[in-house]
């Protein structure tokens, strides 16, 4: 999930006396550029909502799904995409998945019910997670979902339901200390059961921490032999799921290197330090990471030769550039660090709506200060509207293009994947930020670009 970095003070004299972090501008999609350039739309939405809110552009999710599917097509293999629903609770995202032929990875009765209600068919669901409830197993079998079994006892519980259960056996990766998955001995015991009915073993699954495509490719290749062994024992194995972990590239390489190589605690309010950050610049990422998995040692050729379907469960990667989070500045203070002034802003929400603090880390892509006006670059960090000293949206002093004033908006980019609602709570009885759905519609004048329209997700 995160990547380590040194907290040692930089050697470069050009940064050693600065209290301002270098800019970390996020890659920006066309819909975001249009939104920020519109002199009224964002302000109208903010006025109507009256508090922090999340923006979602679901059409981008469809683009991302199609890009992953294109890698399957290019490599000539049968592939399945299951959206990791925990990455974002939006029903609109599930609807787009259904429209683009993707399934969903769910881990609770609520997630399963929501996926069905918004267009995902039961056969296109994979149910994951440990020690599943009796209700979840019953519902999954009733709808023909694929069930990732975490331990042998779960098979006994499924067998007692009186219906055929489609299952993947979750593998504990070699040398892993994970609490999830079955050991080789447990897998062999399950596969050698003399009477597997009503259990239908359709394949294997695994999850790896981090974002290394080579490690995923090599473990997948090693499990091909287990697939063939299971077939020889009479199990109809067709699927190998490698989980998620395809990464998202948030920032340009030059910006990320400037931050990581010259990192200085003096860039942060109260000289705050973190042990690690998400790797906000990655290569390969998203669909390119899937290509790297399939290309390594020609894994695609092996899968084709043995008619094995590769399943993936991306969450964050399907939500890349599909949303932003908006806060309004409601307080401005001036403070000094090393005798240099900076702004300490307070916004109308909390860091729980950016979620990175659940990993004791910081969400690094720069927010956009809106509206755009001329001014001098001003360092600013951003605090939340709570009484907690630790509730900071941005400990880092961000180089804003002008001084912020009360009433301005801060638009945090690319927050749809895990950031915008994975850790939210109504602390202080503050309302949870609603989701605003954006879409492009043709303008009445065919010479004009498509219009952005918005509605609240209900």
From TrEMBL:
One of its GO terms (biological process) is polyamine biosynthetic process. Residues 1-25, 436-458 are annotated as: Disordered. Residues 1-20 have a biased composition (Polar residues). Its cofactor is pyridoxal 5'-phosphate. The active site is at 387 (proton donor). Keywords: Lyase, Pyridoxal phosphate. The keyword Repeat does not apply. The modification N6-(pyridoxal phosphate)lysine is found at residue 86. It is an enzyme of class 4 (lyase). PROSITE patterns: ODR_DC_2_2. It holds the Pfam family Orn_Arg_deC_N. Its EC number is 4.1.1.17. Residues 448-458 have a biased composition (Basic and acidic residues). InterPro entries: Ala_racemase/Decarboxylase_C, De-COase2_CS, De-COase2_N, Orn/DAP/Arg_de-COase, Orn_de-COase, PLP-binding_barrel. Residues 68-254 form the Orn/DAP/Arg decarboxylase 2 N-terminal domain. GO terms for molecular function: diaminopimelate decarboxylase activity; ornithine decarboxylase activity. This is Lysine/ornithine decarboxylase. It comes from Nocardia cerradoensis. The lineage of its organism: Bacteria, Bacillati, Actinomycetota, Actinomycetes, Mycobacteriales.
């Amino acid at each position: 999930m995160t990547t380590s970095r040194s907290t040692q003070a930089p050697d470069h004299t050009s940064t050693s006396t600065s209290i301002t972090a270098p800019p970390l501008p996020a890659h920006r999609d066309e819909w975001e550029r249009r939104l920020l350039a519109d002199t009224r739309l964002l302000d109208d939405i903010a006025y109507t909502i009256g508090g922090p809110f999340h923006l979602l552009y679901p059409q981008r999710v469809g683009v991302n799904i199609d890009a992953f599917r294109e890698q399957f097509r290019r490599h000539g293999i049968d592939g399945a995409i299951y959206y990791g629903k925990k990455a974002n609770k939006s029903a609109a995202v599930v609807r787009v998945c259904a429209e683009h032929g993707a399934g969903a990875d769910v881990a609770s009765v609520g997630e399963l019910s929501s996926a069905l209600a918004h267009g995902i068919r039961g056969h296109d669901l994979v149910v994951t997670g440990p020690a599943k409830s009796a209700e979840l197993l019953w519902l999954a079998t009733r709808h023909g979902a694929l069930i990732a079994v975490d331990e042998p006892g779960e098979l006994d519980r499924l067998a007692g339901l009186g219906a055929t259960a489609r299952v993947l056996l979750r593998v504990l990766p070699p040398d892993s200390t994970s609490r999830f998955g079955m050991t080789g001995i447990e897998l062999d015991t399950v596969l050698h059961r003399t009477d597997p009915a009503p259990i239908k073993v359709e394949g294997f699954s695994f999850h790896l921490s981090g974002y290394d495509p080579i490690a995923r490719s090599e473990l997948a290749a090693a499990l091909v032999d287990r697939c063939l062994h299971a077939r020889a024992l009479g199990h109809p194995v067709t699927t190998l799921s490698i989980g998620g972990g395809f990464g998202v590239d948030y920032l340009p390489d030059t910006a990320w290197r400037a931050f990581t190589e010259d990192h200085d605690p003096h860039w942060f309010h109260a000289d705050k330090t973190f042990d690690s950050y998400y790797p906000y610049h990655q290569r390969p990422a998203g669909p390119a990471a899937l290509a790297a998995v399939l290309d390594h040692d020609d894994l695609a050729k092996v899968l084709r030769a043995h008619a094995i379907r590769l399943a993936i469960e991306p969450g964050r990667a399907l939500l890349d550039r599909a949303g932003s989070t908006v806060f309004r500045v409601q307080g401005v203070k001036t403070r000094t660090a090393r005798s240099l002034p900076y702004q300490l802003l307070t916004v109308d929400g909390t860091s729980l709506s950016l979620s990175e603090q659940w990993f004791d880390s910081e969400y690094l892509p720069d927010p956009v200060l809106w509206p755009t006006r001329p001014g001098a670059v001003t360092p600013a960090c951003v605090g939340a509207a709570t009484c907690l000293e630790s509730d900071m949206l941005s400990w880092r002093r961000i180089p804003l293009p002008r001084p912020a004033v009360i009433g301005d908006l801060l638009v945090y980019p690319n927050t749809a994947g895990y950031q915008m609602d994975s850790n939210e709570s109504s602390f202080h009885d503050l309302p949870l930020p609603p989701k605003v759905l954006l879409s492009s519609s043709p303008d009445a004048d065919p010479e004009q670009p498509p219009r952005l329209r918005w509605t609240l997700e209900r």
